[in-house]
């Protein structure tokens, strides 16, 4: 904390009490806002407000609930406007694989990935219980809800707060909370895609699938790559509002508009949104030097890949994921490494 404040030694001591809640609050704010950067900002602002108000906190609620109340208010303030974040497939139909790239859209249009390290605590049980609700599809679906309904759905169905706890956090009646939850469920039933199998790092077959994807992509072997893809696979590349559907269309896109990715390298990350993720570097003008291209997040269903998500805002995302600004490879690894 860098905020300055005079007095209140209890408030100073409270800073250490806030920190164990940072990751779960960040995950909550991310579900609300759809942006890892905005989620971090929201939690920092919530901690600042909590620090300033700590002398008046009298323990009538748990510290955790109190921090959720403050974080919720910060998120609702940030959501005071009509703009909702989305995925390319939420905005239009699929493009043809040889369509030229459209102009990029601003970053506030898009659902962004979040590093697992920002969203999950040390308890594997908590990770397993909540990772499905950090999937890109779920976060995008939640954005269809009005802000208060969004908060209620997440608190009741993800965080398992009771109706009374949720009502206290939002300064509403329990009856109003339950009514809003029913409306939120009805909306989600129309906008949320069917559940896929997700990713289990302990599943050897899924780990092999991810490894096979890396080998096929780095070899730019489209036959091997398409064999790993589900028939309705979707490829997207925010900040471009195009997306490609189907294995053969993906292969055609990769060998035409996307051919500059030939010779890429994938640096595996601990994960994003509970899914396999990579720092994707592609060949640059200097031999043996690869440049940032995307944070690539895979969506899986059993032993097939259902989503190829290439987030191209590397200037912001690579530092967030702790990635280097370039990757040097031996020219013996593939000549142009590209």
From TrEMBL:
Residues 207-261 form the Nuclear transport factor domain. The keyword DNA-binding applies. Residues 136-188 form the RNA polymerase sigma factor 70 region 4 type domain. It comes from the Bacteria. Residues 18-80 form the RNA polymerase sigma-70 region domain. GO terms for biological process: DNA-templated transcription initiation. One of its GO terms (molecular function) is DNA binding. Keywords: DNA-binding, Sigma factor, Transcription, Transcription regulation. InterPro entries: ECF_Sigma-70_Domain (IPR052704), NTF2-like_dom_sf (IPR032710), NTF2_dom (IPR002075), RNA_pol_sigma-70_dom (IPR014284), RNA_pol_sigma-G_actinobac (IPR014305), RNA_pol_sigma70_r2 (IPR007627), RNA_pol_sigma70_r4_t2 (IPR013249), RNA_pol_sigma_r2 (IPR013325). It holds the Pfam family NTF2. Belongs to the sigma-70 factor family. ECF subfamily. Interacts transiently with the RNA polymerase catalytic core formed by RpoA, RpoB, RpoC and RpoZ (2 alpha, 1 beta, 1 beta' and 1 omega subunit) to form the RNA polymerase holoenzyme that can initiate transcription. This is Sigma-70 family RNA polymerase sigma factor. It comes from Nocardia stercoris. The lineage of its organism: Bacteria, Bacillati, Actinomycetota, Actinomycetes, Mycobacteriales.
